[in-house]
# Entry
Amino acid sequence: MSVAPARALPSSPPVSRLAARGGLKAGERRVGWIFMVPALVAFTAVILWPFISALGLAFTRYDLRTPEPIFIGLANFRAILASPQILGSFVTTFVFVTLATVFTVAVALAWALILNQSFRGRALLRTATLIPWVLPATVAAFVWAWIFNSRFGVLNAALLSMGIIDLPQAWLSTSAGAMTAVVITKVWISVPVTTTFFLAGLQSMDREQIDAARVDGASDWHVLRDHIMPHLRPVLLVVLVLAVIGNLQQFDKIFALTGGGPVRATTVLSIEVYRLAFDSWDIGMAAAVGLLWVATIVPPAFLYLRHLLKDA
Amino acid sequence: MTITRRTLIAGAGAGLGTLAFASAAQAQAAGASFMSFSFAEEANRALVQKLVDDFSARGSAMQVIGSAWGDMQRNVMLRQRSRQLPTAVQISERWLPSFAGMPEIMNLDEAVGRPALEAAIEPNVLNVGRHEGRQLALPMATGSIGMIANREVLQRAGVERVPVTIAELRTALLAVRDRIPNSVPMAMATKNPNSIPLDVLIWVWAHGGRVIDDAGKVVVDDPRTVAAFEFMTQLMRDRLIAPEIDRPDSRRLFGQGATGFYIDAPQARTFARTFSGRGEAFDAVLQPMAIPVADSSIPPVAMAWGNMVIFFRTGDAARDALAGRFAQYLISDEVQATFPPALSALPVTRAARNSPAVANDPYFSAWARATGQVRLHEIGVWSNAPELSVILSEETQAALLGQKTVAQAIAAMKPRLEASMQRRA
# Structure
């Protein structure tokens, strides 16, 4: 019996061109990167580069009297710490974010519970709920500005006709009135989307669980506390975090409604940055306040991203 | 659909091509332009459009861009930083120190020629556009900021005489408040930080006080200035002025017969004609008046007012030459005889001022008689004017709305103004 001589194995086996370039997976990764390039370029040009530039400007003096930025280290941050007006903006932001978030979540939850019931006209009401969300933010702000207007406002007209007030009130000219107005406007605009979140959560709930609780004698409050709220907890977390982020970023509605006034009653951080940059033309200080403003948004954004990645 | 490398490259090429075409189209569209706040005002839009159209008809295409008065400085600064400056910009005389530092601003001594400017315009008018030895702005229309009374409102309120003193003014305002329902007796600017300083300065001067003296010293705690703030806050407490009023509101209220008095430039006539809906027939209702003063030892003081135009170099010789031609056009007899009077403002050239249409206009004569002393806006003359205006407005508003007492507002305002002046130095 003859044995065929063993064929010598080549030192590097011939492979396809695809395999030579890392195989199918590597090819997909490359195509993936190609598709990401436009988005990365846009992100770098529109977000990353301006952000890094602003970061740099925070350490400069750059105003009407300095055509080019001059490096001044931490002087802008020391000036912020010494400015009661700017520190007051942090307090105003905290008040606005807290009130707007709490009332948005509370009203939206209540409204979602109502819209989750079976009644005639429910579909129509659900659709109508979305109207404030559909309106452009500045239009909504101007609508509310007219409602609160001291001379021609509907609110004054209604209260005068009911005899509740004797003279027209300048609602937007008191600190409390202006803050109330911007919170009401923000809540009015935010409730539709937040309601949609809660409604989606409620519709995924097992009705039998509630029915069983009712058979056991649970009251409405107990059903809400012990069954509905635990079920909605993941939705609630997302809604809360998104609301906090959105309210921290709020600018257009407040600017259109009160311009940050009266005096500084509604000057939240976004308005403060705008005023410093475009009223006082102190770009360096505006960038420094902007940097601290971003720092306030980072924790809730981190929480939200962590929640998203955990579920991914 | 399968995306091959070839379709991907073709798509990217098409995208880049579209982008390049759009950029070229935009570059072509970015020709000579005139940015104007009068164009943004409903009452004056057609006038400015005609002004620019007539210039374009001479073969030099010019586009007009509207920007609200309150946003003008902001828009110019933003355009400078994005390298999209217009060829010419209409400004208020008090903004010149803020714009003077811009490297692109044109020196009209060179662009138009000093002899040509001096031949056409009186030196005192021309000097309003001069800054640190350079002619940086071209006066286009001039006048003063003073007070206007509505004769019909005063008549309905039983006020027989235009008030001369602060005490008489208070009496007249009380009469308007009590006899004309839903009126704002005096439409003082109380809302917009850009408008508040003007009214405040007028009332401070009417009490013989100052906010910042000629040497740059903050003197807001002077007893006469404090008295002016007490006067304004008392007006608010007595509902003789109202919150939430800006200059455009004042003009509308005046035209609608809902206010007795307000402070404005002579342009008030044009706005009143429009907002009353009665056109020139409303002229008889307007009564220019001297600013009432705290006592007879204080002369009535009005504020210098002017619409000026600044020009920017682009580096393009043809466009810079066009800017020079536009400047010459603005001070030509053709424009000066028609445009400023149509705005209810005085022309700036000698020839137009001496024309019968201007010299015989009873409104201009009455305005000139009422003007008294004319003083420059004492905040606007400083290069840190925007910051000073914000501080003055915030603290004044705090006092007017009762958030602070006058003493507290002054105590807060003084160190803030001083710190700003120190930074400027």
